[in-house]
Predict the structure.
Amino acid sequence: MASPSRPRQRIKVTPASTAGNYDQDDDDHVHAIYQSPNSRSALERVLDTPQASAAMVGVLTAIAFALRFYKINQPDQVVFDEVHFGKFASFYITREYYFDVHPPFAKLLFGLTGWFVGFDGHFTFENIGDSYTDNHVPYVGMRALPAILGSLTISVVYAIMKETGYSTIIAAFSACIILFDNAHIAQSRLILLDATLVFFMSLTIYSYVRFRKLRYWEFTVEWWSWLIATGFFMACTWGAKVNGILTVAAIGIAVLVDLWDILDHKKGFTMEHFWKHFMARAVGLIVVPFIIYLSFFYVHFAVLTRSGTGDSFMSPAFQETLIGNELLMNSQELRYFDVVTMKHKDTKVYLHSHPDHYPLQYDDGRISSQGQQVTGYGHDDTNNHWQIIPTKALPEAGRGRIVRHDDVIQLLHISTQTLLLTHDVASPLMPTNQEFTTWPKDDHSRHNDTLFYLNIIDADSEDPWKSKSSYFRLVHGPTRVSMWTHSKQLPEWAFKQQEINGNKNPTEKSATWFVDQVISTESPEGLSGEQVPKEPKKISFFRKFAELQLLMLQHNAGLTSSHPYASGPINWPFLISGISFWTENDAQKQIYLIGNIVGWWTCVIALSIYVGIMGADLLARRRGIEPIPDAARGRLWNSAGFFLLIWAIHYLPFFLMSRQLFIHHYLPSHLASALLAGSVLSFILSDTVNYPISIVGRWTKLRKSEYADLGMKGPVVVGVFTFILFLMFVYMAPLTYGTPGLDGETVNAKRLLSSWTLHFAAKETAEVS
């Protein structure tokens, strides 16, 4: 890298006040012109004009709209995860409650778009390949939303590079990597969340760059505006998809670095000044985003007021807030001597018993009690009937006969007239857990072993036990084990039914049961017959919000099952594998999500070059050598370093996750790597940078300016690269748009890597000589 041909002398400027300055910042401002802007090449001067920049971004955006809206009506069938996100949009229109691991913002936008274009919400998006045309679904209007956001992302990428101080041609280079990327285009043409996520992530980066450029105009209206905008767009990113939280983390780290710099005593700031900055950022980047994030869920709950597919995920108290919910309609208070059936919440088996007994000896040699078998049974049966027996004196009538939280009860098995019992005998399948059996009701010798505490989950001391809506744990009095079951089946001697045993953790979350049916009751209302409409109950918004957040985290972490197109993070930057989104056998059409290999591998090379440059610079400076000019080094550390941070935070955490992962999880990081690639290209092509770029303030220490000059090299290199990028995009376009259909030989030709699992490939035959 060539060093500046002129000596760099700092000119001291005495500020008019000592209220604090940024003397140590690399991006400080101009006192004397170090390099005249007119000394640059004529082409550079033309491209650097506002008119040329506006024309460039206009052309790029127009191309983006053309590529993303091209044949957006094809295929006219449900594609990949449209089965989920299209369905969720329909639920907003029908107002039926659903559950998903992702926050609701992007899905609310889809629901609003669907309503706006006339979708009635009754198409259910059940299967990939279901026809939109046959069912009169205005799917093009719904797909237009991500297409618009994906197209505007190109404009934002360009603007980020310009605001960060790069020349027009470099900004166009980074924008083109996203513009002609097959993966970004495929995601932007379907009812999927990633286009919304990437768009608002890019707006977050842009807003933060604008905020940082105003650091010499702290606490002004414009400074506050861009700070609040950063927080707002950050909340939208987080609200679009659960991994948007990584954008929050990336901005958070950048803010901590910023605050650490302000805390430096060499800057001359007081602690009062530091705390003002701290509180401003806390308001703009914590309080405001959290309020916006909460508002998404407030709207979500306000719209979804009817019972739907997501009811069963939620607590009984939550479910009873939904119109038409089964728990709300059928729940009734239980009284002593009622006969009921009980189901395990997770496995949905009934608590069951029958006259058969445990064998004397199990296969592993352990001895049983030979008591009556107590099992879990998956079907309705009279052997599932149990009567609630009191252990205390009861009034003749009235509410004193209602069973309540923390009551001690017995359960009588109706068919065999025996009481449920557990004791210190190992269960058939789990030697560490206790056996459950029964005992004749008239034999009181083991009375204490038949006593169980009724622990209703999230209940207060006097809360009644209700059918359907009261989740409970049954905890044995003497031994404090909770009645529990698991999915493993017992042997033939128990008819391969499910084992019921005593878990030694009395608060085990999976030891949760509920009363499914009331078979007979002495309640004045009797058994539920014709249902009288009931008003939904109310619980606080924050209780709903907290419950849903916890479930979202648990279920997201639980997505660990295998998938044929899942892939590990190490594969993503290199495009080792993609995802089959959709196929049509007759015409041999397919949509295969894969990026533009030219653009993605260029970004990988740029990342490697950047790490090498910064490592070499650190080593050289350790030996007193300054190989890179101050302004160029500052740009590499500050702007390119910020892009590297965004890339790393959106990529590296996936290595720690055990859930299903797919290549589309890399798209935010790919955008960041495109920004970094532009930074690296600018460093390679120009000895100088556009410097400084921040807005000068009253107390700014002024420094000499310089301007990037790529000459003819920049347009030629970027032009050739873009042409190659475009050719690769066109070559892979049939896999992106799903049309036209391809014969087997053509499919083989488009499989650039052997690891790509494309459909309809021709079988390769070996030649026989």
Notes: Residues 160 and 205 are 7 Å apart (CA to CA). The chain is about 40% helix and 15% strand.
